[in-house]
């Protein structure tokens, strides 16, 4: 049951991330950092893909993904199409890994120490979904702010 809810949420929000990045009028706007804003939409997008590919793909799915968190926030002017490709790759990894998790695996401790350190796989996946949604809201705000 939890797997199907998470699949629905991640599919919805990864589609929304793709739509937000595609909706920018120009690629340059994706990378603007207006006064009072800490991160561009491009960096938030890279961060979300890196975060999810690490915690879901590499840790749970045993992919060969190696995260470079610093680069998620320092890279600039990555072409929009490259980001859309990363979003698609991240979506496929999320759905593949989550579909493969049994209810018993969802109740096991998450294999890395994260947050409080005492989270089940299911609990941490819910956290990752809310983290995605939080930054998705920031990207939506950024897009509207830079296009006005």
UniProtKB/TrEMBL annotation:
Q: Tell me, what's a Pfam family for it?
A: DinB_2
- Domain DinB-like, residue spans: 10-139
Known InterPro entries for this protein?
DinB-like, DinB/YfiT-like
Its recorded name reads: DinB family protein
Organism from which the protein derives: Chitinophaga nivalis
The opening ranks of the lineage are: Bacteria, Pseudomonadati, Bacteroidota, Chitinophagia, Chitinophagales
């Amino acid at each position: 049951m939890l797997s199907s809810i998470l699949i629905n949420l991640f599919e919805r929000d990864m589609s929304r991330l793709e739509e937000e990045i595609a909706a920018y009028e120009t690629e340059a706007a994706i990378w603007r950092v207006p006064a009072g804003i800490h991160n561009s939409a491009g960096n938030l997008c890279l961060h979300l893909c890196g975060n999810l590919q690490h915690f879901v793909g590499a840790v749970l799915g045993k992919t060969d993904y190696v995260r470079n968190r610093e680069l998620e926030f320092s890279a600039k002017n990555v072409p929009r199409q490259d980001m859309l490709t990363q979003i698609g790759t991240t979506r496929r990894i999320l759905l593949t890994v989550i579909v493969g998790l049994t209810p018993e695996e969802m109740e096991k401790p998450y294999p890395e120490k994260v947050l409080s350190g005492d989270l089940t796989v299911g609990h941490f996946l819910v956290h990752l979904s809310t983290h995605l949604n939080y930054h998705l809201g920031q990207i939506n705000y950024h897009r509207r702010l830079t296009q006005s």
